[in-house]
């Protein structure tokens, strides 16, 4: 575990700090972070709308026709 931590500290930490200083990459990162909840929420809604159980699909179709 100490080798892994030293690898992270010695190799990846300087790289990540340089990437955080870049304005373009910082803006992209911030944009992805801010849009993640909407993306996950819409994906969850799409999964519920297209759930592959015939009883669920029949119930949705019945609600739509009312």
Tag the structure with descriptive keywords.
mainly alpha, 3 helices, 66 residues, elongated, 89% helix
Care to describe what's here?
The protein has helices at 2-21, 23-49, 54-65. It is mostly helical and 66 residues long. It is elongated, with a radius of gyration of 22 Å. The protein starts with a helix and ends with a helix. The relative contact order is 0.06.
SSE string = HHH
Number of discrete helical segments: 3
Unreliable residue stretches: none
Percent helix among the residues? over 70%
Q: Could you report the average pLDDT, rounded to the nearest whole number? A: 88
Number of strands: 0
| Alpha-beta content class | mainly alpha
C-alpha end-to-end distance: 61 Å
Write a compact overview of the structure shown.
By secondary structure, this protein is mostly helical. It is 89% helix and 0% strand. The protein starts with a helix and ends with a helix.
Task: Itemize the secondary structure elements and their pairings.
Blueprint lengths: L1 H20 L1 H27 L4 H12 L1
